[in-house]
Amino acid sequence: MGKPRDLSMFASVLTALLVASAALAPAEEASSPTEVAPVPVEAVVPEDAAPGAAASLSSEAVPPPAEAVTEKTLWLVRSTYPGQELLVPRVEEAIARLVVGGDGQRELVGSQALPAGPKSGDAAFACAFGERGCVETMGSLAEGAGASRIVLVEVGQDWAGYRCRIASFHAGSTEIATAELESVSLDKALVGAILRVVPVAATLDLRSDPSGAAVLVDGEKVGVTPLSMQVFPGERTVRLELATYEAYETRQTVSANSRVALAPTLAMLPGRLRVVSAGATILVDDVEAGTDEVEVGAAAGRHSVRLVRDDFVPYETRVEVKPGELARVDHALEPTSWGSVTQAMSAAQEDIYSRRVYLTVVYDNARLTGGRFAAQSVHALQTKLDGLQSPSPSGAYVHSLGLEFGAAWRYFGMLWIGGSYFQSANPWTMTLTNGDADSFDGTVMGGTLRLLQPQLRVAIWRVVLGVRGGVLGRLGEVKGAHEDTYFAFVDFAGELQGSLRVHLVEGLYLEGGYGRTWTIVGSIDGTQELRGGVGYAF
């Protein structure tokens, strides 16, 4: 009876030692990719064992580390083809940007997260993609990294683009989910493959004020606000559209398994306001916007419009501007009593200034300013007329009728050409030299030519005041009443005229004026004249 009891005690102690040895084994051996993760063994404690002996050896006394149950995901990346190792950091960055979203507490990216070093993940890649089958290897790797999920990413690039293979393993599972995708874009190939095997979709909660706005995510209409929906992780473009409101658009980076809420207040679309009032200063909401005609942007709602102009009755109104539409105000101001006069005067003046060409029929009544008058006989060179005997110079009148053609701008004009025929009102008695008689009675007649005489003018209502000057030429003869004797004369003179022109209707006008000439070359002292005429301005 003594030996069996001793053997039983020896077996119990040996079992406890084996359990303790397994519990104290190095972590590197437990996480080796070629070994199965240790399975806890419950020790058998004999009834007559020494008190406390089994308690110090029980696996229940060594609880698993807290990190082992933390919900973490380990992401490991390797290149498919030799020489493409530079793709690995690119993919790791893409994972952090498109999927992980910077959550360092839940996501471990890269082989540097492996306690046993980068090489410890090679066995996992081998089994995940069919090179060897060992779920135990994935479990050991997850336990060693303190992760509940392992995602293996294998990426390569060839002539067709990027090829991504994904394997996902969850601790406690007996299956490995795999997916594969090719694309010309690395991000699209990566995210598309990940979404097939890893639950990484995020949630968008969208509200708007007012509600009912159409929701577009990455250009695709998905509903109206309020809306809660799942989206792929990464950078998403969200746009809200509602009639009569400005569209709201934002680019939002969405992390895996995150929830993003957006609740913008939409701004009403601005409308347009067009105001037309000739000559008026236009104020919109008490701010000067321009004169005559303006078109401005205006927020939807009611706006004040005020029109002001000197000598006119001010006008003010309120106009409703609708979102995205054009509102119009078209109003002609009414002149005040004095304003009516000034407006009429201004309109008449502008009509005169707008007419550029004129034609005038002119009648002149001129007289000599001195008694000197000389003419040469046409038949005898020694016979001349030299001096006026009668009438006196103040009574020696010459009447003329002519036509003038010119152009006018606002304040400046030009007589292009003018011609007239003149004749003395009565025969003149002049001193005759080298002849049979001492005097000669004859009628003075001839023609006058004017060219390129500049003019200054100003219009006041329908009246135009003008000053004109230039050079004229006269060619004439003195013919006796009962004889066939002719005396000829030529005269070039400077001329200055002042005129007053009254416009009756349209371009029709009457003209009066006073002028004077000073002989430059010739034998006449000069003339002064009163003139009148009628003409039309075109």
Low-confidence stretches: 1-70
Count of individual domains: 5
Shape: rod-shaped
Quickly give the CATH architecture of the largest domain. Beta Barrel
Q: What portion of residues is helical?
A: 10-25%
**What's the Cα radius of gyration?**
58 Å
Q: Tell me the fraction of residues in β-strands, as a range.
A: over 45%
Distance between the termini: 151 Å
CATH topology of the largest domain: Porin
Summed over residues and divided by their number, the pLDDT gives a mean of 79
Query: Briefly, what CATH class of the largest domain?
Result: Mainly Beta
How many strand elements? 28
Keywords: Signal
InterPro entries: PEGA (IPR013229)
Domain PEGA: 203-264, 278-336
Signal peptide: 1-25
Topology:
Elements: H1 2-23, H2 27-30, E1 73-79, H3 87-100, E2 107-109, H4 122-128, H5 135-145, E3 149-158, E4 161-170, E5 177-183, H6 186-197, E6 202-206, E7 214-217, E8 220-224, E9 227-231, E10 234-241, E11 248-254, E12 259-262, E13 271-284, E14 287-298, E15 301-308, E16 315-321, E17 326-330, H7 337-353, E18 357-368, E19 374-377, E20 384-390, E21 397-408, E22 412-424, E23 428-433, E24 439-460, E25 463-480, E26 486-505, E27 508-521, E28 526-537
Parallel strand pairs: 1-2, 1-3, 6-12, 13-17
Antiparallel strand pairs: 3-4, 4-5, 6-9, 7-8, 7-10, 10-11, 13-14, 13-15, 15-16, 18-21, 18-28, 19-20, 19-26, 20-23, 21-22, 22-24, 23-24, 24-25, 25-26, 26-27, 27-28
